[in-house]
Amino acid sequence: MMNLMGNLIQLVGHDIFVTKPEIF
Asked: Do residues 2 and 9 make contact, with C-beta atoms less than 8 angstroms apart?
């Protein structure tokens, strides 16, 4: 479960970071 959530957050976070880096 933790691995699954971690991977999901990693993928989504990467997408957000690439599309909207100003958020971070």
From this structure: no
pLDDT tens digit sequence for 1-24? 678 877 777 878 777 766 776 755
Q: Which residue's entry shows tokens 């999901």?
A: 8
- What Å distances lie between residue 19 and 2, 6, 8, 13, 24, CA to CA? 25, 20, 17, 10, 11
Structure tokens at 14: 């990467």
Q: Which two tokens stand for residue 10?
A: 């990693």
**H or E segment and range at residue 11:** helix 2-19
